[in-house]
Amino acid sequence: MDIAIPLYDRMTALDAIGPYEVLSRLPGARVRFVAKTPGGITTDNKMLTLIADEALDDVPHPDIIVVPGGLGTRDLLHDEPLLNWIRTAHETSTWTTSVCTGALLLAAAGLLDGLDATTHWIARDLLAELGANPVAQRVVVQGKIVTAAGVSAGIDMALMLAARVRGPQVAQAIQLGIEYDPQPPFDTGALEKAPPELVTLLRGLADLEEASATHA
Amino acid sequence: MDIAIPLYDRMTALDAIGPYEVLSRLPGARVRFVAKTPGGITTDNKMLTLIADEALDDVPHPDIIVVPGGLGTRDLLHDEPLLNWIRTAHETSTWTTSVCTGALLLAAAGLLDGLDATTHWIARDLLAELGANPVAQRVVVQGKIVTAAGVSAGIDMALMLAARVRGPQVAQAIQLGIEYDPQPPFDTGALEKAPPELVTLLRGLADLEEASATHA
Question: Sheet containing B145-148: which strands, arranged edge to edge?
């Protein structure tokens, strides 16, 4: 079972590594990190390099696709080589999934037209502009397309997917294997739960990051 | 503020990437991935390569140390270059932390003698053999040493640490930024909650992995 995770510059590492850590533990799974050009991929904060071992074209028909998010998605909304790979891979995939703003790439590829989908809360408007119907859920399943909310939601999504792919006992074993018994120190991890001033702060920071990236 | 994360072959990626994703968002933070030899580091399942940009000696005095776990720890329990780096860095660190079986390396370096500590549930006995007092908690704070339980517990640990380092509001903003509002599909993520047959299954798998690694 091939699981392809496309990497690109300015992606968010945990978007990819959360699902990888879960799905790589499925019996028979082979996670393949792919990119337009194989080699080092620098994450959003420039502090980490992940290696894409293969080119997109080396893995045209993965069983599962996991598209991570990150600020870099904004530069890829018209990137035909990547969008075309997503579109083509989706034709034969068993599951096509995204984490965080990876949903923007699924939408840009035309996969989410008129469908319910989730993304990072900060990108809901943009997801709607791209044709999807954003909903405030952590994981959204629409046929074989599964979208997850921001960054850490990929872990929940992957466990749910593991249960669908190999049954609940295998998924439970993986959850125990990664000791996923979360005890977050605060209850501010969703837009609907966070104090408004935090939301305003993060929206401001995101605007700054996008502006500085545009002018970089 | 320098945050050093030592990487080594057969580590578990999420152990490192969870805390990285949180701590890299602290104002002024610079996460530095270090290794005995800079370059590509292959994770436990051989499906992913992370880059260590610098040598251990390039970052002798980080403010925060995060030691990830993984099967590779078993080969490092007598690795003096790494253990000596941990020991020396700990002398001047503000916080010395571990995730999962990274605690075995803190213990092997002599940092946990007689102290309460946590690790992956499967390694509690080994942690005790190395001189620590294993406790069944997700995060354990002993002075400036913080240990986290298995794999995913590094996210909770890092958020707690973020609050101690920069105050609760910053930590809450980070939690909202990574949309950490976990909704695990099962409640089997801890030894005390999991069905006994799953625990037996995972202990068996772990023994197999260690055996095959020893004979590789």
Answer: B54-55, B30-35, B2-6, B64-67, B95-99, B145-148, B139-142
pLDDT at position B162 is 97
Superfamily of segment(s) A2-182: Class I glutamine amidotransferase (GATase) domain (3.40.50.880)
A residues 38-77 near B, CB within 8 Å?
Answer: 40, 45, 47-51, 53
> Which backbone phi and psi does A14 adopt, to 5 degrees?
-65, -30
Q: How far apart are the first and last CA of chain B?
A: 40
Collapse the DSSP code of A86 into the 3-class scheme (helix H, G, I; strand E, B; otherwise coil) and give the result. helix
Taking the Cβ of residue B186 and every Cβ of chain A, the question of whether any pair is shorter than 8 Å is answered with yes
Residue found by looking up tokens 């990150």 in the block: A70
- For residue A140, is pLDDT > 90? yes
Rounded Cα distance between B123 and B84, Å, is 22
Which pLDDT belongs to residue B214?
Answer: 60
Catalytically annotated residue among B65, B100, B123, B160: B100
| Residue B33 β-bridge partners | B5
What pLDDT was estimated at residue B206? 82
pLDDT score recorded for residue A69: 98
Q: Measured at the alpha carbon of residue B115, what is the angle toward residues B109 and B117, in degrees to the nearest 5?
A: 85
Closest to B90 in 3D by CA, of B106, B73, B71? B106
Q: What is the pLDDT of residues A68-94, one digit of tens each?
A: 999 999 999 999 999 999 999 999 999
Mean pLDDT, to the nearest integer, of B147-169? 97
Give domain limits for chain A: 2-182, 184-216
Residue percentage of chain B with pLDDT more than 70: 98
Burial code of A2-11, b = ≥16 C-beta within 10 A, e = fewer? ebbbbbbbbb
Residues of B in contact with A201 (CB under 8 A): 173
- Rounded alpha-carbon distances, angstroms, from residue B22 to A153, B80, B174: 14, 30, 7
Pick the closest to residue B165 from B35, B52, B22 (CA basis).
Answer: B22
ipTM of the modeled complex: 0.96
Distance (Å, whole) CA A4 – CA B9? 22
